[in-house]
Amino acid sequence: MRKRLVILGGGESGVGTAVLGKQKGFDVFVSDKGAIKPQYKEVLNDNEIEWEELQHTEAKILNADVVMKSPGIPDKVALVEQLKVNNVEVVSEIEFAAKYTKSTIVGITGSNGKTTTSLLTYHLLKDELNVGLAGNIGDSFALQVASQTHQNFVLELSSFQLDGIRTFKPYVAVITNISEDHLDRYDYKFENYIASKFRITMNQTEKDYLVYDADDKVIEKYLKENKIKASLIPFSIERKLEQGVYIDNNNIKLTIKEQTLTMPIKDLALEGKHNVKNAMAAAAVANLLKIRKSTIRESLSNFQGVEHRLEKVLKIQNVQYINDSKATNVNATFYALDSMQVPTVWIVGGVDKGNDYAELLPLVNEKVKAIICLGSDNEKLKYVFNGTVDVLVETDSMEEAVKMAYKIADKGENVLLSPACASFDLFDNYEDRGRQFKEAVRKL
C-alpha cells in the first residue's frame, strides 16, 4: 500500500514537494485554499499529480500518512489542528526533502540579513563546490533534490520552516541575529519566536557547527541558558575572539581551529555594519567547507547586493532614492537608518506585526527630516513619531508617497523606503512594494 502524502499549499515549496513525493513512490494530493498559479498547475499535470484549488476537501486530506504544510499556513488553522489530533505527521518542505539527500547542508536563519548572508555564502562556495541555493529563496529545495545532484546546499530558513522540522540537521547552522518579528504567529511571546529560531541547531551533534552573532544579546542569553551540542563559531564587530571572526584594525580577522584569514573591510563589496556581519558569517561557512582563502577574499569583494535591500535606485536632482522594501521589521529598518549619512525622508508603514517603533526614536531624531506613512493603518506610527520630526504625512499609494518625498527632499539628501512592516495591506509582497517604489521613482 503506497503511503499518502498530502500537500497544503500549491506554491513553490508545495509543488516541489509533490514532484519529489511522486518520484519517491507516494500517493500525492495537493490542496490549496486559494488559486494555484498556471505554471504550477502545468508541473502538477505533467507529473500526473492530483490537485484541487479554492478549497480543502477534508475527506481527501485527513486520510494522509504525512502532510507537508506551506510555511505560510499557521499551525493554529482548524484543519492542521485536526490532523494533529489524528496523529498525522505535519512537516515542512525542508524536513521532507532533507530525508532524500546526502548533501552537506548549510542552514541560515535570523530575523534580518538571512537572504544577503545566504546569497553571499552561495557566492563564496559556488566556484569550488557543486552547490544549490534554496529554502526561502530560488527554486524549492524539494524540487532540486528531485531533479539535480548538488553535493551541497545553502538553505535560507524562516522560523515557519523551522517549526516544521523533526530530524533535519544542517552541518553548518547560521543565526545572523534575533529581534522581535512575526510575533503574531507566536502568541505575541518573544521567547516562542527565539526558540523557533534555535530549532535550526536542535539535531546538531559535536561534529556540526553553529555560526552566530556574539554581539546579539538575545542569542548570547539563549546560549548561556541552553546546552547546544554543536561546535560554536561566533562573530563580532565589538570584541576580539580567540576562535571565530572579529574586527582588528579595520580588518576582518578569521581564526577557526588552525585556519586564519585577514581581509580589509574597505575591500568588501557591500557597505554598512550589518553587511560586515553578513560577510563574517559567510566567510566562516566558506572556511568550514574548505574554500580557498583567495576565493573567499575575491568573492567578498565582487558580490552584487540583494534587490530590495538598501538598493540604490536613482539620483534625481542630487537626491538619492533607496529601496529597502525587504525591511519588514523594526530591526531591519534600524540597520537602514543607521547607515544613512545625510538627512533622510523616510517612507514607512504597512501591516504591523506587533512592532515596537520606540527603539527607532534615537535614529529618527538624528537622521530623519520627514516621515511619510504608507499603509492602511498608520495610527501607531503617528503616535510614536509625532513631534520627533517637523513633517509627518499620510499617503495611501506608492506613487503619492514618492511624489510627496520628491517635494520634501532637498539636494544632497536621501529618500529611503524602509517600511519596518509587512506589505500585504497595499501590495502583493515586499518585492511588489519595492518594484512599485522603483517604478514611481523612475516616473518622477
Describe the structure.
Helix content is 35%, strand content 23%. The strands form four sheets. It has a six-stranded parallel sheet with strand order 7-8-6-9-10-11, covered by helices on one side. The radius of gyration is 22 Å and the shape is globular. The chain is of the alpha/beta class and 444 residues long. It folds into three domains: 4-91, 3-Layer(aba) Sandwich (Rossmann fold); 95-302, 3-Layer(aba) Sandwich (UDP-N-acetylmuramoyl-L-alanine:D-glutamate ligase); 311-442, Protein-Tyrosine Phosphatase, Chain A (Alpha-Beta Complex), CATH 3.90.190. The mean pLDDT is 93. A hairpin with a 2-residue loop joins strand 15 (311-316) and strand 16 (319-323). 49% of the residues are buried. It contains 17 helices and 20 strands.
CATH class of the largest domain: Alpha Beta
Rg, please? Answer: 22 Å
Largest sheet: 6 strands, parallel
Helix/strand-derived class? Answer: alpha/beta
Residues in helices, as a percent range: 25-40%
Widest β-sheet, arrangement of strands = 7-8-6-9-10-11
Q: Work out the number of β strands.
A: 20
Pfam families: Mur_ligase_C (PF02875), Mur_ligase_M (PF08245), MurD_N (PF21377)
Domain Mur ligase central: 108-286
Domain Mur ligase C-terminal: 308-421
Family: Belongs to the MurCDEF family.
Helix/strand layout:
Layout: E1 4-8, H1 12-23, E2 27-32, H2 38-46, E3 50-53, H3 58-61, E4 66-69, H4 78-85, E5 89-91, H5 93-98, E6 104-109, H6 114-125, E7 131-135, H7 141-147, E8 152-156, H8 159-163, E9 172-175, H9 190-198, E10 209-213, H10 217-225, E11 231-235, E12 244-248, E13 251-256, E14 259-264, H11 273-288, H12 293-302, E15 311-316, E16 319-323, H13 330-338, E17 344-348, H14 361-367, E18 368-374, H15 379-385, E19 391-395, H16 398-408, E20 414-417, H17 430-442
Parallel strand pairs: 1-2, 1-4, 2-3, 4-5, 6-8, 6-9, 7-8, 9-10, 10-11, 16-20, 17-18, 17-20, 18-19
Antiparallel strand pairs: 12-13, 13-14, 15-16
Helix pairs in contact: 1-7, 6-11, 6-12, 16-17
Protein name: UDP-N-acetylmuramoylalanine--D-glutamate ligase
Domain Mur ligase central: 108-286
Function: Cell wall formation. Catalyzes the addition of glutamate to the nucleotide precursor UDP-N-acetylmuramoyl-L-alanine (UMA).
